[in-house]
Specification:
- By secondary structure, the chain is of the alpha+beta class.
- About 35% of the residues lie in helices and about 25% in strands.
- Strand 2 and strand 3 form a beta hairpin.
- Mean pLDDT is about 90; it is low at about 1-5.
- It binds zinc ion (ZN).
- Zinc ion (ZN) binds near residues 94, 160 and 162.
């Protein structure tokens, strides 16, 4: 069997201190040439601080707590697929949003996870500064660690504001990434079943 490449540590993330970011955004407004005291901007630093904390709240996510017992021992060995999981993230190069859909599948060995937990795992990693490739890999790796299935497949399609709003301005270009572990990496029929379930041609 081939080994799963790009193993990333996903279960233990450093916890961050809760800081008031408002003074930083106040200063940023000034440096951008704005007047932070004008009416529309008075509370903006506070609002941006709150928004940024939410958009990066994944750093505080405790995956074990989040899964919280929603693991079930069952005799089920068919593929489980959760399609079209919407996510919103921030690219770590520009701190601009990228967003799209993720399709997650796994082939259980003896354990399944509550279906609603999968979008929550996606959010826990999307709400950080990310690159799409790592986000995809982390979701796959986490499912692998938690459920210990025969294999995991994740496909991610996203559009990046840093491409849409600046530089190349390719407003309709999207990026696709995938992470295939275990049977999804080693067995073409498993991978093909996943791809057909999410309507993609084999890669
Ligand atoms: Zn970017």
């Amino acid at each position: 069997m081939k080994s799963n490449k790009a193993v990333v540590k996903v279960m233990h993330q450093p916890k961050r201190e809760e800081e008031d970011l408002a003074p930083l955004f106040h200063e940023l407004l000034e440096k951008l040439g704005e007047d932070p005291s004008r009416e529309g901007l008075v509370r903006t630093p506070e609002r941006v601080s709150t928004a940024m904390k939410f958009l990066t709240s994944g750093y505080n996510a405790d995956i074990k707590k989040l899964v919280n017992g929603a693991l079930y021992e069952v005799k089920y060995d068919e593929m489980v697929v959760v399609k079209d999981i919407e996510f919103f993230s921030l690219c770590e190069h520009h701190m601009l949003p990228f967003f799209g859909k993720m399709h997650v599948a796994y082939l259980p060995k003896s354990r399944v996870i509550g279906l609603s937990k999968i979008p929550r795992i996606v959010d826990a990693f999307a709400r950080r500064l990310q690159i799409q490739e790592r986000l995809t890999q982390q979701v796959a790796q986490t499912i692998q660690e938690i459920i210990d299935p025969v294999g995991v497949g994740v496909i991610c399609e996203a559009r990046h504001f840093c491409m849409m709003m600046r530089g190349v301005e390719k407003q309709h270009s999207g990026a696709m990434t995938s992470a295939m572990l275990g049977a999804f990496r080693d067995r073409k029929d498993t991978r093909d079943e996943f791809l057909s379930l999410v309507n993609y041609r084999s890669m």
